Amino acid sequence: MVISKEISASSDGAQWQSIDWKSVEAHVLKLQMRIAKATREKKHSKVKSLQWLLTHSRSAKLLAVKRVSQNKGSKTSGIDGVIWNTDVRRMTAVNQLSRKAYSAKPLKRIYIPKKNGKLRPLGIPCMIDRAQQALHLLALEPVSETFADLNSYGFRPNRSTADAVSQCFKCLALKQSAKWVLEGDIKACFDKIGHQWLMDNIIVDKRMLEQWLKSGYVDKGLFYDTEEGTPQGGIISPTLMLMTLAGIEQQIKSTALKMGARANLIGYADDFVVTCSSKEVLVNDIKPLIADFLAERGLTLSEEKTKVTHIDDGFDFLGFNHRKYKGKLLIKPSKSNTLLFLRNLRELIKKHATIPVNDLIKLINPKLRGWANYYRHCVAKQVFGYVGHKLFQALWHWAVRRHPTKSKDWVVHKYFLNRKGQWQFHGWQKIMNMDCHFNLFQIAKVPIERHVKIRNAATPFDPQYQEYLVKRKSKRLARNSWKEPVPTAL
């Protein structure tokens, strides 16, 4: 009996290793494209039939289990303590992934710190619930993409904050562009979405949707019901939120046109801005329209954070400051984000006062590279230089504090190299019997490149955009080919 189980487990592991993932993804995409086509043609019965076919297909189950067991949060368990960290467990999960008699378990409530020091609640589903959500997300995403606002960029395939910022530039850069901006803030968007609206309007298996919405959560050993909202931590939650907000862009444009004005919405998840040629239309017509639209869905605008701003005064959106200087629009890293990044770097350096220099460089470089990559499409050269200078000062103080009895010349020769007139923080380590050289990533040298925005209507589930998206991805990978420094032999 024991031998039989061992053989079965070994077989499951080998089976997972032998899966042709390209074939699996191609089969799923083919069904998703059929769902999107039926959605565009408003054949709702066909959409539901194809969704059922997809969620019951082995390919979709394999892909769902792969995504939840090999993503960033795969090592965090739900209330049952289970994780799928072996090929045997993954294959077993695929075989057990069934709608029949399915009942969602309560979420595990955890808290993560926000920028303002407060705590954000997250609901962590069990692995089986994540897999079920991922499975039905495969069937829901083609519908969501078909209905999505053209200028909505968050939690959508092939879209990014860079696309949203590029659209802001397009709407605000010209002399005749809109001068007024409504900065929108939806109060607790994920936590307040009305369950009844979701049940009435989301085209997905209703029994499964209700299971996730009403699963409740466990916090410090106590169970709590969920009467509203979608859990921040659920795989399907961002798409449910996007579908809740879909349609608002066209209503805003139509309302502005009726009032003789021009307006554009740029959204990223639950953050959005509306640009308009008339302050009066923004305040008297568009803002009330947005409030009514949200109220139908159980949501409200934050009166404290929602405000109307002139472009000459500038506004922050997605970590970027947008402002016109003498008629010229400049988009830069926001001051608050720059100062926060520097504070985090200083805390990291202070926390690791005694580690080897090469280990410190290994900790700092990914953060520098990630931050630079986020901002390298805007007017950031001066800010990159400022960050590099402040980091140099912090590392100099770190080096001096480590050797209080040594001279400054000694510290310079130990930790810094002069390259073409610039001092560079560096370290050594023996690797494979060679003295290897570690360099700090030079953020000031990161090239600034214009981002090419995605076409508004492009979606991976429409055949006419397949070739375009493939070419766009390859070009983006080529542009991102610059890497952080690697150890080099001395």
Automatic annotation (TrEMBL):
Pfam families: GIIM, RVT_1, RVT_N. PROSITE patterns: RT_POL (PS50878). One of its GO terms (molecular function) is RNA-directed DNA polymerase activity. The keyword Oxidoreductase does not apply. Keywords: Nucleotidyltransferase, RNA-directed DNA polymerase, Transferase. Residues 93-322 form the Reverse transcriptase domain. Belongs to the bacterial reverse transcriptase family. NCBIfam families: group_II_RT_mat. PANTHER family: NUCLEAR INTRON MATURASE 1, MITOCHONDRIAL-RELATED, PROTEIN YKFC. This is Group II intron reverse transcriptase/maturase. It comes from Vibrio lentus.
